[in-house]
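Final report, Chapter 2: Outcomes

The project's central promise was a pipeline that accepts a single protein chain and returns its three-dimensional structure in a standardized token representation, suitable for archiving and comparison. That pipeline is now operational. To close this chapter, we reproduce one record exactly as it appears in the project archive, with the input sequence first and the structure output second.
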Amino acid sequence: MSSNRYAPALPLPPYSYVSGHGLPHPVNDPAGHLHAARETVHEPPIPPGALADLPADPPGRRRAVAALLAADPGWLFPLDLFNGGFYWEAHEAWEGFWHALGRTSPEARFVQGLIHLAAAAVKIREGKPAGVRSHATRGRELLRLPGPSERGDAGSGPGDALGLEWESIAAVLAELEAYRPECWQTSRFPVVKVLASGLRIAGSTPGQPVGQASA
């Protein structure tokens, strides 16, 4: 299984939290899989001062942030969580990066868009159509991708997406927006993947060092 992951050294949780499914809250419940680490769950994942010397020009800054994140297993791990069906946990992990990147910076808004993708997937598991639609719509806005009714290449976007592949982001969004009630999965199994699409690092595949091109 590790060959299909970006951060195989970090163990996946025993379950993915969904409200109302009978599983303990990961942080608040003593039986939760993050309860023992609750004091560090919301600590900034980027060391203080790491963003101080970034280039001033926006494209250079975003490339530098992408390079910084690509070397951090803590940034790659939420991709494994999301792709593996651990949507609530991916949401939580990305939230730390959103705060660390300043919440309102262009990079932070991009991460906020990823958070909304994860939240939409959680709403699928909860069986809440309005939540799926609202989170997917907000995610598309923050990620600055064309709407589903707009013409153009939905796989192209501004900047380098912090190292993520635009086509994979567009595929996830399209799948979220195509969900219908009869497709929803509200199973009580510990982990349920509701998306066939996954997020990918540009120029790399899970199990390869980031930046190493696929054959």
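Archive annotation: The chain is about 40% helix and 0% strand.
This record, like all others produced under the grant, will remain available to the consortium after the project formally closes.
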